[in-house]
Amino acid sequence: MFRVDDNSDISDDEYEKYFRPFIDKVDKYIQEEIAPLVCAYTIATGYKLDTLYYNTFEKHLADALICFNQEIITDKKFKENVKNILKNTYDLEVTSENPLKFKEENTWLEKI
To answer: How far, in Å, CA of 50 to CA of 60, rounded?
Structure first.
């Protein structure tokens, strides 16, 4: 439903009841669905185009996440999600995180 804009501020109760759940849902979706895809795409594309410098997996994730205007938590679950996307979508298997290294298949180049 659309809320009626009456040009007044919302109360704290209204914020907690309506807006906080909305913000939390969107943040969770970005964290779990969008950010891992963006990271994997950024890393795979950078690798394919020879633009990545030797650095840690963590540093490459941080660089890819600059485009988000919110904190993304790069915990173990997040990293595993990105690694799975790299492997399953781009045929890049992470063999080392420090520095980042891949075992690559020959078919992934056509996928970018």
So the answer is: 14
pTM above the 0.90 mark? no
CA triple 26-31-35, angle to 5 deg: 115
23-43 pLDDT per residue, tens: 999 999 999 999 999 999 999
φ and ψ at residue 14, rounded to 5 degrees: -60, -45
Burial 17-26 (b: 16+ CB within 10 A, else e): eeeeeeeeee
Which positions ≥6 away from 94 have C-beta within 8 Å? 57, 83, 86, 87, 100, 101, 102
Q: Which residues contact 5 (CB under 8 A, 6 or more apart)?
A: none
List for the chain the helix, strand, coil content (%; round to 5): 60, 10, 30
Helix, strand, or coil (residue 100): strand
d(CA 89, CA 111): 7
